[in-house]
Amino acid sequence: MKKLVIATLVTAGALSLMAADGKALSAKCAGCHGADFSKKALGVSKVVKGMKADEIVKALQGYKAGTFGGSMKGVMKGQVATYNDEQIKAVADYIATIK
Ligand code: HEC
Asked: What is the pLDDT of residues 55-83, one digit of tens each?
């Protein structure tokens, strides 16, 4: 029984290490959105800082699918095209914690 508990804990630990790192995934966004997402990217986006995680997920999924955005949505499509659902969620969760 003890062995089973230990095995479970080790597995859970390994999984959390593999989880997407929202901070690292958002590093490339800084050039346009600012390091703390307080800039209007290229002068046109909303300020992302202060948006809720689920709003950010919706926006990023929409850019990826081509169903969301304004005149410059193509710029954002390129940014998130290679991010999977887990990575998008991780980025959004990270941004929502920026104070
Ligand atoms: C090359 C510049 C550039 C980079 C890099 C970039 N963005 Fe953007 N982002 C924009 C522009 C421009 C818009 C507005 C696009 C539109 O809808 O017309 C935008 C819009 C957004 C929005 C929606 C805000 C709104 O106006 O509703 C979110 C959320 C967002 N970006 C997050 C990110 C994240 C997360 C990253 C990094 C993975 C990122 N962006 C990287 C330029 C950039």
From this structure: 999 999 999 999 999 999 999 999 999 99
